[in-house]
Amino acid sequence: MTPKTNHLLAAALCLGLPGTIALIALIAVDRLSLGPGLIAIAFVVGGTAVLVFRPLSRLRQLGNRLEGLIDLPPESAAEAGQPDDTGAIGDVAAALFRLERSWGRDRKQLRDGLQAAQLLFDALPDPLVTLDAQARLVYANAAARKLLEGRHGVNDLAGRDLSAVIRQPGILQAVTDVLGGMSTRTVEFTFTDRVDQSFEARVEPIRANASNDDDARALILMRDVTALRRGEQMRADFVANVSHELRTPLTSLVGFIETLRGPAKDDPAAQARFLDLMDTQSTRMTRIVNDLLSLSRIEMNEHTPPRDAVNLKQTIATVADLLAPQMRARDVSIELSLDALDRPVVGQAEELTQLFQNLIENAIKYGRTGSVVRVEATVRDGVASVSVIDKGEGIPREHIPRLTERFYRVDTARSRELGGTGLGLAIVKHIANRHRGELSIQSEPGEGSAFTVTLRMRRDADTAA
Ligand code: ADP
All domains of the chain, ordered by start, with CATH? Predict the structure, then answer.
């Protein structure tokens, strides 16, 4: 017998029980004879079976439909819990239990999936927002919240018009175009309200089943291109600066040549004077070209730190000897306090010579005549800090962060007069970078300056390597 027939029979028996008992009682007290009694019982049970057949098969259908909604294997029925009911109602109740569990699991999976997507979007370094059909913000990832929250006094981004936080006609027009049915647009814009920040924004349409008015219809992914644009600007400025720096002495040279050919043609005293001036100008050009070549060589190798052992005490002493004529010319003396350098540093001798030559030369150039330049070393945790200290004119605070830019000078005319190229500190900075060291500048106008470079001391392990 099938379970279906079982259920029908059980239900018919249960529902027909009172009538059957009454008939049996009538038979027992001989008020009804056995034959017609049994026929009456069969009618009661059969009639009840006919009556319950429809609701039972409806229950069965509902049970089957419930089964169709359940995304769990039948074996999981035990885990879902067992209802107390039996028969067809028990089956439907069991199916409901499993459905409840299956939906609970689906809801959890959905929640976990959403959380994972949220984490993923929040981990993106680039700001990402989605917009509804009215260009209102639907979602903003962590980077976008950081960028946009608080802008123009808007703290809560959800549901706000994009134009309330990004007041840039270019991107707003691109969003209007994309929401109006156009394909992907890429625009660039710059925030100027806090610090200047340039972004390249890609506006993409979202066409997939957006049914509600507040569903996301467009996505904006922004890429910070500030550093890129700044780099491009710096490159352009650099070329302009180099051209300018070389053109000035070149123009003088051309002028002197014309003078030598013309007015000074027969004047040996003037010729000698002009040749001296030409010598100065060509030396200046040579210095600029040499400094540029050094800079590009150091930059080219900047990603591979040098690993030689350099006796810095000796290097600095050699530089001091080398600069003795310049010191004499400005009546400057030098004091070396380098006892802390009891072992070599890790580096490249030629570059470290150039680094200290540039710093000590500056200290002589910009120090007061008749003053003392000190070079001091201290060592802490295997790192040497070497400072070149002068008692010179000092540097106004606002210039300090820019001193290591190429061709940046506090006083250009003065630097040129002293034979400077404006590249010395840029070279120092790049050598320090290559050595994974740091350059720091302390200065007090009218008091003097201290330029400090950190370098790693060589350890026994380095020697073994
Ligand atoms: P320059 O060839 O002009 O000396 P640098 O790159 O070496 O170029 O230095 C950049 C600028 O920094 C100099 O023009 C000068 O204005 C300033 N400067 C560098 N060293 C000192 C110093 N020891 N004291 C005062 N100013 C300094």
Answer: 3-114 (no CATH), 124-224 (3.30.450.20), 227-304 (1.10.287.130), 305-465 (3.30.565.10)
